[in-house]
Each structure stands twice: as C-alpha cells, then as structure tokens.
Amino acid sequence: MFNGDGRNITVNDNDQYMYAGRLELQPWKGKLAGEEAWVRFGGNALTSHDSPGTVLSPVGTLRVNSDGSLATFTAPSVAERDGYGFDAAFHWGPFDLIGEYLSEKYESKSTIPGFVDFRAEGYYVQGSYFIVPKKLQVVTKYEHFNPGQRISDNLDSITGGVNYYIHGDDIKLVANYIHTWSNFRDARPAFGVSDFDEVILRLQIVY
C-alpha cells in the first residue's frame, strides 16, 4: 500500500492510496553447457484512486500532445487507475534475455469536456552479453509504447549500448545509442520529423 509521490518530494498531492502486488516464480535453475542458468517469470498488478491535481507522470512520458510528442500528465479530476504487467527472464552464463509487458488504464470520475479516458500499454525485449566476463557488456533493446490516446500514436525505439564495469555495479560507465520513430508523425508529415536519434553517456557511482 502506497501514499505519496516518492523520494525528494516535500508535498503530498494525493490523499488517496495505491495498492500493488507482485508474484515471481523461478521454475528452473541449473547448469546448461557448463554455465549457470535459470528462468524466471513474474506478474504484477495495481489499483489506485487519485485526487485532482495528482502528478501521475512528472516527466514527459505519458500525455500525448497535438503534434504526437509526449508531455507530463496531472490528474484533472478524481480518477481511478488499474494496471497489470508480466515479465520473463532467461540467464545463461554471460548472456541475459529479459522481456516485459505493462498496461494501465486511466479513468476519470468526472465529466471533463475534451478529455477521454485511455489505456496506455507497452513492452520491451532486451538482450545482453559479456564480451569480457564481469567487465565489458554489450546490450540491445527494442521498445514499443502505445499511449492509447490518439490514432496511431505508437512510439518504437531500438537501443544499442555498451556497459563497462569498473567496480561491479558500484562504479560503471554506460553508453547508449537510441533510435526512436513515431507512427503519429510518420502519418502526419506536417508535424515534423518522425525519426529521432540520441546518444546517452552515464557514469554510475553507488556508495
């Protein structure tokens, strides 16, 4: 059971509660071709009542603008949310493969002109492999997100990355190249380019 907006927030904008649960299963663990291996599956669900003004997406990742871009989202009225997700992971020596699907419905309890309830959903598949054991790792990832608010508002992206572990997960360097394309923009060229590229570099220090 949760209440509040998380860490580094001094004002609680929601006096309601969210309930969440998760079940995880590891049906097999053993050796495969001499390497440690295992398989895991998981499922989770949540339900939440939200007060008007609750910040549900503090960064630009949910509400679809008129040009197809994503913006922050604040609950305009009393609302309910219900969501669920499934994930799976396979580990074999230097190789990992994981995938996850998430879905969440937002339903306003008040009549607001021009506002339509929606269900956002998405999934990703990610593979990684240690070229140098516990030191140098390559990663590739495919992501799909459907905000569910406009026709053909899907976003897809492909990531290629390298992780260099200086001192395990405590100190590591991460470099990612991400290519994203917007079906909404592709179908409506007047709004501008539909493909985007970015390079992200990160230094992680945990203490």
Q: What is the makeup of the main sheet?
A: 9 strands, antiparallel
Q: Quick one: overall form?
A: globular
**If you average the pLDDT, what whole number results?**
93
**What is the CATH class name?**
Mainly Beta
Span between termini: 28 Å
SS elements, strand count: 13
Helix content: under 10%
Corresponding CATH superfamily:
Porin
What's the total helix number? 1
Query: Might you state the CATH topology name?
Result: Porin
Order of helices and strands: EEEEEEEEEEEEHE
**Strand line-up of the largest beta sheet:** 1-2-7-8-9-10-11-12-13
CATH architecture descriptor name: Beta Barrel
Strand content: over 45%
Low-pLDDT segments, ≥5 res:
none
Structural class: mainly beta
Number of domains: 1
Spatial extent as radius of gyration: 20 Å
Folded structure, characterized:
The protein has a single domain, classed as Porin, CATH 2.40.160. 2% of the residues lie in helices and 63% in strands. The chain has a 9-stranded antiparallel sheet with strand order 1-2-7-8-9-10-11-12-13. Strands 3-6 form a two-stranded antiparallel sheet. The protein has a two-stranded antiparallel sheet with strand order 4-5. Strand 7 and strand 8 form a beta hairpin. The chain is globular. 9% of the residues are buried. The model has no long low-confidence stretch (mean pLDDT 93).
